[in-house]
Design goal:
alpha/beta, eight-stranded mixed β-sheet, about 40% helix
């Protein structure tokens, strides 16, 4: 794997917080500003694959095959309709991975091995891993392979409770599997400015996590919700909507943080 490649896992054990929407639109925004991006869909539901227009019948090689060590990153990556954005699709086969490799000594590092085995200089500057909504073996593989974790957090009452659990898992992975793992940032999603609770959650998360929280807040947006049914990212579906504009700003923040990291 190219030493310039940055691997970011997008994780939260809660469902419905905007993980896949963030993965798709952040990847598209990064591609739009000149990065060469790969999304690895590690969620058995395969929503990132569907949201990028990869039909189930065309997912002949998937992230399951990569984890089972029967296919390489190059074999599994397919181009999408977005220039400079490729995808390793997901299939329901992933549901059985935990059982199939649970006794293997390398069960939590299969994905990392696949990236390291990609000996030819990788064309990708960013790899985003879309995780399932649980802290299972798939998420562990993603964290063990990543440089950092990006956490989408819905602006709702129990947000901080879930965040604490996720941060504890990151600490455990750092201690046991991947000492270089960091929190890239926390992105607040599905924000509704008319809701006093949402504003309170934003304030609470910022006071708890400080500058780890991105300045950009992703609003609740109908156009962003509609885009996956057309198999394209919101940024292509409606560039001018508030959600698309927010994801472009988020991509700019991610790039800035990565530049600071490299400079440091």
């Amino acid at each position: 794997m190219n030493s310039q490649t940055r691997i970011i896992t997008i994780a939260n054990q809660k469902g419905g917080v905007g993980k896949t929407t963030t993965a798709i639109n952040l990847a598209t925004a990064l591609a739009a500003i000149g990065e060469n991006v790969l999304i690895v869909d590690l969620d058995p539901q395969g929503n990132a694959s569907t949201g990028l227009g990869i039909d189930r019948k065309n997912r002949t090689i998937s992230s399951y095959d990569v984890l089972m060590q029967t296919a390489s990153i190059e074999d599994a990556a397919v181009p999408t309709a977005v220039p400079s954005l490729s995808l390793i699709p997901s299939t329901l086969d992933l549901l059985g991975v935990e059982m199939e490799i649970s006794n293997a000594s390398d069960r939590a590092t299969r994905l990392r091995k696949a990236f390291r085995g990609n000996a030819i200089a990788s064309p990708f500057t960013y790899i985003l891993i879309d995780c399932p909504p649980s802290l299972n073996l798939l998420t562990m593989n993603a964290m063990a392979a990543a440089d950092s974790v990006l956490v989408p957090l819905q602006c709702e009452f129990f947000a901080l409770e879930g965040l604490s659990q996720l941060l504890e898992t990151v600490n455990q992975v750092r201690a046991a599997l991947n000492p270089r793992l960091t929190i890239q940032g926390i992105v607040l999603t599905m924000f509704d400015g008319r809701n006093n609770l949402a504003t309170q959650v934003v304030d609470d998360v910022r006071s708890f996590m400080g500058d780890k929280v991105y300045r950009t807040v992703i609003p609740r947006n109908v156009r962003v919700s509609e885009a996956p049914s057309y198999g394209i990212p919101a940024i292509l579906y409606d560039l001018k909507c508030a959600g698309s504009q927010a994801y472009l700003q988020l991509a700019s923040e991610v790039i800035q943080r990565e530049r600071h990291l490299r400079a440091a």
